[in-house]
User: What shape does this take?
Amino acid sequence: MDYILEMNNVTKTFPGVKALDDVTLKVRPGTVHALMGENGAGKSTLMKCLFGLYKMDAGQIIYNGQEVTINDAKEALGLGISMIHQELHTNPHRNVMENVWLGRYPRVGGKKSPFVDHKTMYKKTKDLLESLNLSMSPNDLLRNLSVSHAQSVEIAKAVSYDSKIIIMDEPSSSLTESEVAHLFGIINGLRDRGVSIIYISHKMEEILQISDDVTIMRDGQYVGTWEAKELTTDLIIKKMVGRDLTNRFPERNPKIGDELLRVEDYTSPNPLSFKNVSLTLRQGEILGIGGLVGAQRTEVMESVYGLRVHTSGKLYLRGEEIKVKKPIDAMNKGMALLTEERRRTGIFPLLSVKENLLIANLKDYSKNGLLSNDGMEKDSIEQIDTLRIKTPSTKTLIRSLSGGNQQKVLFARWLLTQPDILILDEPTRGIDVGAKYEIYVLMKEIAEQGKGVIMISSEMPELIGMTDRIVVMSEGRVAGVVDSKKTTQEEIMTLATKYVG
Amino acid sequence: MEDLIKRNRFSKDNVKTVLMDKAISIVLLVLIIVIAIINPKILSFRVLRDILMQSSTKIIIALGMMLVILIGGVDLGASRLVGMAAVVSASMLQTPDYVRRFYPEMGQLPIIVPILIAVLIGAFWGVLNGVVVAKFQVPAFIATLGSMLIIYGVNSIYFNMPPNNSQPIGGLRSDFTALGSSSIGPIPVIVIFAIVAIIIMWVLLNKTVFGKNIYAVGGNKEAAMVSGINITAIIIGLFVVCDSLIAVGGVLEAARTGGATNNYGVGYELDAIASCVVGGVSVTGGVGKVSGVITGVLIFTFINYGLTFIGVNPYWQNIIKGLIIVSAVAFDIQKYVQKK
Assistant: This one.
């Protein structure tokens, strides 16, 4: 048997969109198979067809040498196909073992019995966790675990189904470097047991490191499958976008001016959060904030923006001390914050593109307490054109746009408030390569207007490629400030781990 | 308030945070102590026994309500179902020599028959509620708002049937009223019913697959679905258990008070919801313990009883109860705010 799984000629149409067009995926047993493509390329749709969450219009699934039809998640799990979703499907209020055996609790005295056998469940969970080198207890509540551990629980669950294939949809997107290393350890262990992993990720370096085979999709079509060792980051990007991307970052000629914003000695009341953080931002500058996930970068910036409290510390705008207690104070002083979690704190999914664009700025369109629709429509169209936001109309609900386009709408929302200081928290997370480049160009243009940009990012290349200076944080403290032109990934990593442990 | 939030969000091992966590229990405990100081007679065996008996039906109803709250819903029809179960069971359990019998020609039924009929009626409404919520995806709040009105209408038609013509049902058989008022040794029979209900519910929620699945559906519906749990069956099932328990509560109310009208049970659903919430059942679903519900009911009944006992004006009692409910939820939500 060459392949544990073959998906042949899969086609899936949604009203108005051909999401999958004659797609093929062939996975060898005991391999890590990366599935790549820009957002909207159809990776998730393909996986949902495999997992029985979508019904294919046409195509064939051959699993373990036999043609199968999969109608729902339960059938997929029964066959030995499990999926770890991007957004974790755990129950935060219950413990590890109940999450692992959800839907299949061992029962006292036979399958038909209504009673749960807690002893057996505990033991089976303990053995399972040990076999995966996981340190948590079967009795730990999920809400007390870190994201990475909660994800490990999902992996343990997948393993407990005796899965031959585990689909992982962007499993590393919210993990720190060391957690990713741990994840890879688990993946390697699974591969040695003969399990195949279908791995979806946007992170090229990771893909090249962990996978055996790579299948690339573009616009719902199959581009091809290669062995990972034949590929490079540039080659993958080229195949994904279907053109050469000569530069991943736009050319910049920064003209750095006077000091714009100075944060002095910011300390959080929470001893586990940030302490004594100082930094400066100058006009025309893009300042990077680097560090591991959990280094409290977001917390510092949210505190500067008035979303969180700080016990001590001062804030200066153009040399004058200012007080920011609430986001509206920050906005009035010319600050804007693009938050980290687009879906949770960015978009209003049930509102239109127009409303999403203008929501932070509505007072500008208000006359005698009434909103003027003409001005709103005109400005929306202007923003959609300048930022090249792909949307059928201004009235389209934002949730139907791709992640990259949603992010552009949020960018436009804050640009409309005409900020002098734009704080971006992981602005390119989960966006495809093409849209990333456009976001970079926007950042560059904003800086060229003499404004200041602060970018928190966990992606080293973009941190080094886009910024002028990088403040590296470690365990809530500033570990160092480096010049982006002279620094290396190694130097940043060293600083980022300075206070760890 | 802002100070409270600040502290809460940031300090873990802070005494104040712990106090905050238990704030509602502390406030209620203080209230109980105040009542006891004003009138120490409330702590007499007789009064406490009375409070316990009053709590019994409420515990049974609240335990049913808890199941629906565990999936983030609420059963507004509970009040009217109590009324229907009371009327139906009482109408068939009158003494033969009573003048205004509901069924003048009916012979002596074995006591279990009318009770079973009442409970089955509860189960029937449970199926209907469950199907509307699970199959047609109507929010429980709306679905049970509808069934509340329908049950009341149906019950009133039944209650208005000749020869009864909406007369309060009285003259209940002594073997029936004994369920509500007699004792085995020092323990009232009605309390035994409550204890049985507590044991059944504790086992159901902690030891059975069905119970675990209720928590799973309440805590993360998507995850439950992906794990192959039959969500429809779980929701219908829990409504059946809930409404059967509520019907039992209604039957016992008839037995305890020795009568029934179609207006029995009004406000009970709110008491049940309030007790659950005060007892730590999260209105967003997925969190809640049997012990919490019992505590909630006991505290609530004690305060209810106690306020009357020390002569607080009933209008003020409503204000106090309202404040307790809102602050209980407000404090409960703070616990989750601090997690961010």
Summary: The interface with chain A takes residues 6-7, 9-12, 207-210, 212-213, 215-216, 219-220, 222-229, 286-287, 339 of chain B (CB under 8 Å). The longest strand of chain B covers residues 183-184. The longest helix of chain B spans residues 231-257. Residues 141 and 154 of chain B are 20 Å apart (CA to CA).
